[in-house]
Prior knowledge:
- By secondary structure, the chain is an alpha/beta fold.
- It is built from 15 helices and 28 strands.
- The strands form six sheets. An eight-stranded parallel barrel has the order 10-11-14-15-16-17-18-19, surrounded by four helices. Strands 20, 21, 22, 24, 25, 26 and 28 form a seven-stranded antiparallel β-sheet that branches. Strands 3, 4, 7, 8 and 9 form a five-stranded antiparallel β-sheet that branches.
- The protein is globular.
Amino acid sequence: MKITPVLTSIIIGCGSMTAAQITDPDSKFGSFPSYSGEDLELSVDSNGTHWRMWSPEAEAVQLIIYPSGRGSAAEQIIDMTPSTDGTWIASTPAQLYGKFYTFRVKHSGRWLAETPGVWAKAVGVNGNRAAVIDFSATDPDGWANDKGPALKHINDAVIYEMHHRDFSVDPSSGIANKGKFLALTEHGTTNPEGDPTGIDHLKDLGITHVHILPSYDYNSVDETNLPANTYNWGYDPLNYNTPEGSYSTNPSDPTTRIKEMKEMIKSLHDNGIGVIMDVVYNHTADNDDSNFSLTAPGYYYRHRPDGTYSDASGCGNETASDRQQMRDFIINSVKYWAKEYHIDGFRFDLMAIHDIETMNQVAAALKEINPDIFVYGEGWTAGDSPLPVERRALKENVSKMPQIAVFSDDIRDAVKGHYTDASDRGFATGKPGLEETVKIGIVGATAHPQVDYSKGNNSKFAYAASPSQIINYVSCHDDLMLTDKLRKSMPDATEADRQRAARLAQTIIFTSQGTPFMFTGEEIFRDKKGVHNSYNSPDSINAIDWNLRHSNAGQFEYYKELIALRKAHPAFRMTTAEDVARHLKFDKTEPGLISYSLTDHANGDEWKEIKVIFNGSDEPREVKVKKRDWTVIAEDGNIKASGLGTSRGGKLTVAPRSALILAAEK
Ligand code: CA
């Protein structure tokens, strides 16, 4: 099936092997039956409790029933019966609400360790046993009528990436449920100075969607020992279809985490904020001991010719979305989150490990549930994969995925400096030569007559068919966050200068075509003490110090006005490549400057023309602007969506490291 160059070299290098001995360890999986009914693995109805577990190669499967989520002896062991499409079934006449269960699979003559399966929708503490619960008891009041904000277009979203623990755990948050889902249900919380924190802060800022770091059940935080205050981002998936226990007030009760996550979502929805989930189907925390491996050994992963796990995730394994049961698992899992939890969007980690066909099916299935749901992801892998490049859901292949968006590493690295070199500067911190790459971001990586893609740093062609396929950002949980990047790349500058650079960087993002995305706390210039990979760093690194909401109030006001500007003006949110090519016109400028106009009431904007000029250098620069009556929207590190003042145009000065934005109504 896959004759890769690596395999060829093995044939050459191992003279004693014959062609017959060289087999693709994954080739057999193509002939496996698949089963994707909603009764996988548990269903409860008036006739009792029913299990159906998919394990085509199993020699025997047992179902083990327990009275509790950990420690207790088994109450019952039931031999499951082979059924259709590689599944094994068992039933009890009683509705076993309150009970826990695991499966045990006999494979190649030996019994594997117990597993809660891959479809556990409720689990006990640390996710070791699945639970039978009554889901009607998990819905908050009013859940039936709950829904996220209506979104005409993905480009109308303003995405705010956050981690439950970062956001609320610091004493300065004034939040009672620190590090919990419920933190986002608390109103009226303040820092010691009386400034709003938590959800009130988010409303004040004006973002439309929170993007929550992994909130499914992950592996690394010991839910039986929460006082240890262990921290993790959560990119170590354990149970994909139930919430993480450490974010609940009682991880031992399977119902609590579900109910509290729904309460969080409802609270955000009630305040007009959508919820995007970060999903990590591309790898699991464990290899041979993962729930995938303990139910159907080998099937869910890709392997190298020598049988070892291939590792495009850089985390020890990679899943195989190109296999039917894995593809269906991903599709049905996101559908489940969308229906049961009313999730408004999905961010796919290392999306290019998945194949294009799977991602297109994911988007189509979600749009059928709710056309406002949107999907975006990292259009890259962390290592090589057996999946051919042309089948990968790569950034470069996004035009083949019309309903999917990808992160623009082009604008990210060009604006603030390259992510691999802490001291490297970008356009917003005065490095010349990056103007063309920034422009790729400004036009949302669409084809534009004035953008020369051959000069792009990360991409050499217009990969997006539409600006709706681009997420623009300068910073996220990965790599140095903006504050730390500015401190390391501008070591001799003042904090005020760095804050100016941050304002310029985010102004470029929020005025660009595509969808803007920001990292939690940047609006108050928080830092992570220079730690770039803080996935398991303590709260002292990751927690937001809410006192900064007071000491950096000016920064917050700038971000708030910037978001208000974008939301009020559709010219920054054009929906087609044709509109961008027609209505966005760049001016000729010297290095260090970028200048463009949004013309002729672009995308139905009330403003006839908007002039946007960025000066990334540390010198004031003179520009010539058409003589007419302008309203000054941004100037010298200040911004106001309703206008700072007026200008007659002509020869104007753009202050160092700042944006000049002018608007003409007619
Ligand atoms: Ca967990």
